[in-house]
Design goal:
By secondary structure, the chain is α/β, with parallel strands linked by helices. The chain folds into 2 domains: 3-106, Beta-Lactamase (2-Layer Sandwich); 113-353, Rossmann fold, CATH 3.40.50.300. 38% of the residues lie in helices and 25% in strands. The chain has helices at 3-18, 51-61, 64-73, 120-123, 143-157, 192-199, 215-226, 240-248, 253-266, 294-302, 307-315, 325-334, 340-346, and strands at 23-27, 33-36, 39-42, 75-81, 87-95, 98-106, 131-137, 161-166, 179-184, 206-209, 230-236, 267-277, 283-290. The strands form 2 sheets. It has a 7-stranded mixed beta sheet with strand order 9-8-10-11-7-12-13, with helices on both faces. A hairpin with a 2-residue loop joins strand 2 (33-36) and strand 3 (39-42). The longest helix has 16 residues, at 3-18.
Length: 354
């Protein structure tokens, strides 16, 4: 990469911070584009990206092992700290035969739990002695930030042995009162499954998992949560019911009864969150939290998962469970905190806002 390309990249990266953009997109045939709120805008004073420029950029970011993985799998996600001390989560992939990349700015430190916008009941989950806390939501809902804030709270206030299993390692933690060991999949451990199996036999109090997908990963996660460890895990799902369905139906029919039983025993909470832009232009998290009561645990054991929505609506905040996500969005619109279009974009049932 020549000096002019290096300077252009530095300017692009600084633009994310300057314009409070959430993502920087780099693709051949387009200028660098920033996502600011719901809009994609070009980075000022930047040229159209050519195939050679994109190749030079990617080559500068990847080591030999990462480059081999990109060529084999045609996509890779890494985290990189640049000269300006800013750290980014970078997705690199091919499209139409050309390299493209998306960069997400990673906070230098995890925000305090009380600064995220989570309801108080969600903040108190950090005091859960053991069990599984799932953080769900669509991409861009700041799930990893929430989980990192839980870990940093423990780091500052508790003496715990904490292990993270991440793809890739995002926020870098410095040991405070706790000892934190961050393992990156592909570099420090071969797979999420292997990392979870290792954690089961170690003197570890808290495990954080940045992504759950396969049945084997879910099996090890539930076993850890049932063994007395506190587990924070991220799962891609848009609703609490869909998250539970995703877990249960990852397994074959004969194993589903055991999984339902394990969930009913180990599940401490599900946080379903969205990241929204307020009327004032700031970002905030709005989330619903389900802390299973006996009714919900019985529903999980029997497998009638769709009944959970009814149980949550009838709880009215009992047992620590918050109001539904859509109800909270409706209140935020009524209070002038967010606009209706923003609520529709984030709602589980958008038709409630028409």
């Amino acid at each position: 990469m020549n000096i002019s390309e290096q300077l252009a990249i530095q300017k692009m990266l600084s633009s994310i911070d300057m314009y409070r953009a959430s993502v920087l997109h780099l693709s051949v045939g387009n200028p660098p584009m920033m996502r600011i709120g719901e809009k994609l805008l070009p980075v000022p004073e930047q040229n159209i990206l050519t195939p050679d420029v994109m190749k030079n950029i990617v080559n500068a970011w990847l080591d030999e092992k990462d480059h081999a993985r990109l060529e084999q799998e045609k996509e890779i996600i890494i985290a990189k700290t640049f000269e300006n001390k800013k750290r980014f989560k970078i997705s690199i992939f091919y499209q139409q035969g050309f390299l493209s990349a998306s960069l997400l700015l990673i906070p230098s430190i995890a925000p305090a739990l009380n600064e995220l916008g989570l309801p108080p009941v969600a903040q108190r989950l950090v005091q859960t002695p053991s069990g599984l806390v799932l953080v769900i939501g669509p991409s861009g809902s700041r799930r990893s930030t929430t989980v990192a804030s839980f870990i940093e709270y423990l780091n500052q206030n508790e003496q715990k042995h904490i292990m993270t299993i991440e793809e890739p390692v995002e926020i870098l933690f410095g040991d405070n009162r706790s000892v934190i060991e961050q393992r990156e999949v592909g570099k420090d451990v071969n797979t999420v499954e292997e990392g979870l199996a290792f954690a089961a036999h170690e003197d570890i109090d808290v495990v954080m998992i940045s992504r759950l997908s396969s049945a084997k990963e879910l099996h090890h996660t539930l076993a850890l949560a049932n063994s007395g460890k506190l587990v924070f895990a991220i799962l891609s799902a848009n609703s609490i019911v869909s998250a539970l369905h995703s877990i249960i139906y990852s397994f074959e029919g004969i194993d589903q009864a055991q999984v339902r039983s394990d969930l009913a025993t180990s599940l401490a909470a599900i946080i379903n969150q969205r990241c929204l832009t307020t009327v004032g232009g700031d970002t905030t998290i709005i989330a619903e939290v389900m802390i299973p009561n006996e009714t919900v645990r019985t529903i999980m054991q029997k497998g009638n998962i769709v009944q959970i929505d009814t149980a949550l609506l009838s709880s009215h905040g009992e047992d620590g469970t918050t109001q539904s996500l859509d109800t909270q969005l409706q209140q935020a619109v009524a209070n002038g905190y967010i606009n209706r279009e923003e609520a529709i974009r984030s709602a589980v049932n958008p038709y409630l806002f028409h």
